[in-house]
């Protein structure tokens, strides 16, 4: 079975966001595999191990720095990786999906896996857009996945229960938390990753004519929160001051 995982490199969840010249500055920031994509990588590896055969390919669209995330996926056990460099392109989720779909059209696959959303923009669009472009059936927010001959069955949590969806292969699945517990790369895996193929493609060479549907006008940080007030007077006085503050400062009454 040929398995492809769509992977995005994102900021570490503990990273402090800093703006420079109106843009997010990633210098000195730790970047990681998007956690939901990590579930997708792990699931692809488990499917391959269960079947005893197959190939796991990880694909990412981004800058050269995304090679770090791809190498980590290779260290986890993926067989090879593809980086589509998007430097100089105007990007939104629709363009990224077009870029990835164009690359996938040149590959063989039985199953495509991706995280259901990225933790940086939380758009939850790229995976499903890729499926629509390629005309593939899709199961989203999967917490359990079963692979059989020519089909897959995905379990997804819904209010008050579980929904079970079966679709034929090839198909696309997006992973939700709870699908598995991603493994840590072993030292042997880290050493082997250095020798595995990591192919670099320039998105500009794909012949795309995609334009963003979303334009970012401005990026800004939220205003800092003001410190709270504590009134330590006698109860009657404290209540009067509190009511005044709620009326005149907070303007909630």
TrEMBL record:
<comment type="similarity">
    <text>Belongs to the ETF beta-subunit/FixA family.</text>
</comment>
<dbReference type="InterPro" id="IPR014730">
    <property type="entry name" value="ETF_a/b_N"/>
</dbReference>
<protein>
    <recommendedName>
        <fullName>Electron transfer flavoprotein subunit beta</fullName>
    </recommendedName>
</protein>
<keyword id="KW-0813">Transport</keyword>
<dbReference type="InterPro" id="IPR033948">
    <property type="entry name" value="ETF_beta_N"/>
</dbReference>
<comment type="function">
    <text>The electron transfer flavoprotein serves as a specific electron acceptor for other dehydrogenases. It transfers the electrons to the main respiratory chain via ETF-ubiquinone oxidoreductase (ETF dehydrogenase).</text>
</comment>
<comment type="subunit">
    <text>Heterodimer of an alpha and a beta subunit.</text>
</comment>
<dbReference type="Pfam" id="PF01012">
    <property type="entry name" value="ETF"/>
</dbReference>
<dbReference type="InterPro" id="IPR000049">
    <property type="entry name" value="ET-Flavoprotein_bsu_CS"/>
</dbReference>
<feature type="domain" description="Electron transfer flavoprotein alpha/beta-subunit N-terminal">
    <location>
        <begin position="21"/>
        <end position="210"/>
    </location>
</feature>
<dbReference type="InterPro" id="IPR014729">
    <property type="entry name" value="Rossmann-like_a/b/a_fold"/>
</dbReference>
<keyword id="KW-0249">Electron transport</keyword>
<dbReference type="InterPro" id="IPR012255">
    <property type="entry name" value="ETF_b"/>
</dbReference>
């Amino acid at each position: 079975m040929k398995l492809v995982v769509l992977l995005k490199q994102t900021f570490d969840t503990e990273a402090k966001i800093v703006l420079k010249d109106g843009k997010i500055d990633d210098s000195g920031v730790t970047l990681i595999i998007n956690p939901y994509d990590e579930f997708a990588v792990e699931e692809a590896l488990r499917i391959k191990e269960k079947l005893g055969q197959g190939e796991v390919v990880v694909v990412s669209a981004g800058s050269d720095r995304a090679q770090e995330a791809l190498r980590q996926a290779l260290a986890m056990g993926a067989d090879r990786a593809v980086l589509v460099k998007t430097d100089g392109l105007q990007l939104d989720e629709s363009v990224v999906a077009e870029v990835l779909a164009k690359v996938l059209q040149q590959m063989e696959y039985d199953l495509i896996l991706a995280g259901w959303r990225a933790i940086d923009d939380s758009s939850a669009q790229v995976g499903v857009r890729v499926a629509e472009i390629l005309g593939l059936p899709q199961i989203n927010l999967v917490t359990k996945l079963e692979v059989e001959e020519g089909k897959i069955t995905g379990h997804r949590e819904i209010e008050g229960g579980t929904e079970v969806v079966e679709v034929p292969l090839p198909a696309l699945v997006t992973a939700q938390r709870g699908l598995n517990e991603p493994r840590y790369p072993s030292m042997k895996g880290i050493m082997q990753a250095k020798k595995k193929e990591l192919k670099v493609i320039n998105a500009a060479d794909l012949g795309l004519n995609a334009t963003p549907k979303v334009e970012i006008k401005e990026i800004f940080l939220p205003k800092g929160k003001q410190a709270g007030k504590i009134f330590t007077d006698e109860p009657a006085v404290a209540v009067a001051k509190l009511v005044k503050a709620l009326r005149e400062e907070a303007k909630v009454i």
